[in-house]
Design brief:
- The complex is a heterodimer of chains A (about 110) and B (about 120).
- With about 110 residues, chain A is an all-beta fold.
- By secondary structure, chain B is mostly beta strands.
- Helix content of chain B is about 0%, strand content about 50%.
- In chain B, strands 2, 4, 5, 6, 9, 10 and 11 form a 7-stranded mixed β-sheet that branches.
- The N and C termini of chain B lie far apart (about 40 Å).
- Classes of the chains: A mainly beta (about 110), B mainly beta (about 120).
- Chains A and B meet through strand 5 and strand 10 of A and strand 5 and strand 10 of B.
Chain lengths: ~110, ~120
């Protein structure tokens, strides 16, 4: 099973600033990496797939990068609605596995 | 509007069984791989079962093999998860999820149905 590790567990950032979230895979997953946002009481929402492609309706301030084992989600100029939990997921191999999440909180 | 609605969750004793149902609307289930994903309250996400469009291929995470069974009825636009021999660590919110066409990430999620295993 591919183990996904996200860092940091919690990230405190001020509105308007940039946030950088990291995700590492225990083995190469090529570009098969997705990012999801989850707010309290809601289902996850797809943000990024293919490591860097924004899903439909996702604002341009969200960007993804990386390949192989190292991936990054960057949110430029944080808005109030961006403070949430973020998960990365590899879909290169079954079982598809998620990272443990990064909580993005207001500083 | 594309929508997935789960039902069938509830409180069950250890060793018991439940059948979860997911009804899709706004699209034809027959065109998509589908997945059940669970989330322990306050914890992370785990893909537990996956099924091909025609039901001919099914995959399970090791922790549920032999106890969970995924199935579908495309005519009813419905997905199912039969869960047997329930254990306390199966307590979770179970999401029905649609796989993107041609790839394996999830592009649509239901709101989930809560399964609580307790004596």
């Amino acid at each position: 099973e591919v183990v996904m590790t996200q860092s940091p567990a919690t990230l405190s950032v001020s509105p308007g600033e940039r946030a950088t979230l990291s995700c590492r895979a225990s083995q190469s997953v090529r570009f098969k990496l997705a990012w999801y946002q989850q707010k309290l009481g809601q289902a996850p929402r797809l943000l990024i797939y293919g490591a860097s492609t924004r899903a439909t309706g996702i604002p341009a301030r969200f960007s993804g990068s990386g390949s192989g084992t190292e991936f990054t989600l960057t949110i430029s100029s944080l808005q109030s609605e961006d403070f949430a939990l973020y998960y990365c997921q590899q879909y290169y191999a079954w079982p598809r596995t998620f990272g443990q999440g990064t909580k993005l909180e207001i500083k | 509007e594309v929508q997935l609605v789960e039902s069938g969750g509830g409180l069950v004793r250890p060793g018991g069984s439940l059948r979860l149902t997911c009804v899709a609307s706004g699209f034809s289930l027959s065109n998509y791989w589908m997945t059940w994903v669970r989330q322990v309250p306050g914890k992370g996400l785990e893909c537990v079962a996956n099924i091909k469009q025609d039901g001919s291929q099914k995959y399970y995470v090791d922790s549920v093999k032999g106890r969970f069974s995924i199935s579908r009825d495309n005519a009813e636009n419905s997905l199912y998860l039969q869960i047997n021999s329930l254990r306390a660590d199966d307590t979770a919110l179970y999401y029905c999820a649609r796989d993107s066409p041609g790839d394996s990430y999830t592009d649509c999620w239901g709101q989930g149905t809560l399964v609580t295993v307790s004596s």
